[in-house]
Amino acid sequence: MLRFLGNLLWLIFGGLLMGLAWWLIGLVAFITIVGIPWGRSCFVIGQFTFLPFGREAVSRSVITGKEDLGTGALGLLGNIIWFILAGFWLAVGHITLALALFITIIGIPFALQHLKLALLTLAPVGKVVVKS
């Protein structure tokens, strides 16, 4: 019940806005064709952004126990390209909302969640969302 309430309040405190931003960037990435891998990550993380409480993003290599295309050297290159083209702007959005929420006492848990998501925007390639 607490997760449900937390996720409901989260949508009001910026989760809906930032989830839609992730999906918008995902749509743009899909339109470019070469951006499809980033677009897929955007939709997964966008869905996570809508309802983050009770879940977390971890490296796929932690789950599988081995490196793969997204968690190795190509994943690093993909994350660098991602950060330059879109990740920076999503991080700015999450950080801006976090700063606004830190002003209020009730907003602090939501601000912390925005900061976690801001860190995720720096390197989303090779991440999976799991229940915590």
UniProtKB/TrEMBL annotation:
<keyword id="KW-0472">Membrane</keyword>
<dbReference type="InterPro" id="IPR005185">
    <property type="entry name" value="YccF"/>
</dbReference>
<dbReference type="Pfam" id="PF03733">
    <property type="entry name" value="YccF"/>
</dbReference>
<keyword id="KW-1133">Transmembrane helix</keyword>
<feature type="domain" description="Inner membrane component">
    <location>
        <begin position="77"/>
        <end position="127"/>
    </location>
</feature>
<feature type="transmembrane region" description="Helical">
    <location>
        <begin position="7"/>
        <end position="36"/>
    </location>
</feature>
<feature type="transmembrane region" description="Helical">
    <location>
        <begin position="80"/>
        <end position="112"/>
    </location>
</feature>
<keyword id="KW-1003">Cell membrane</keyword>
<dbReference type="InterPro" id="IPR031308">
    <property type="entry name" value="UCP028777"/>
</dbReference>
<protein>
    <recommendedName>
        <fullName>Inner membrane protein YccF</fullName>
    </recommendedName>
</protein>
<dbReference type="GO" id="GO:0005886">
    <property type="term" value="C:plasma membrane"/>
</dbReference>
<feature type="domain" description="Inner membrane component">
    <location>
        <begin position="5"/>
        <end position="55"/>
    </location>
</feature>
<keyword id="KW-0997">Cell inner membrane</keyword>
<keyword id="KW-0812">Transmembrane</keyword>
<dbReference type="InterPro" id="IPR052937">
    <property type="entry name" value="Inner_membrane_protein"/>
</dbReference>
